[in-house]
Amino acid sequence: MGYVPFAMGHYVENTGDETLSFLEMFRSDHFADTSLSQWMALTPPELVQAHLNLDQQTIATLSKDKPIISG
To answer: What is the 8-class DSSP label of residue 59?
Structure first.
């Protein structure tokens, strides 16, 4: 169990060897989901490079399409 304050970015990673069942609840009637990779790919590369010290090759691998995750 965990708690993430409102409007704070977070992600879930299964670090084990078994299937992870994940249930996320919101106190809102609106769900919004943002892909960090997509967000960085759509940000001007010069800004991403300057703030995160990423090389151009790494930035070029970022996808502008949001990955679909299904279970």
So the answer is: H
Mean pLDDT of 55-69: 87
How many domains does the chain fold into?
1
Catalogue the active-site residues: 24
3-state secondary structure of 27: coil
Q: How are the residues of the chain apportioned to helix, strand and coil, as percentages rounded to the nearest 5?
A: 30, 0, 70
Residue (of 62, 66, 17) closest to 44 by Cα position:
62
49 located within any domain: yes
Q: Is 17 helix (H, G, I), strand (E, B) or coil?
A: coil
* Cα 71 to Cα 69: distance, rounded to the nearest angstrom: 7
DSSP 66: P
Residue 3 lies in a domain: no
Confidence of residue 70 (pLDDT cuts 50, 70, 90): low
Q: What is the pTM of this model?
A: 0.53
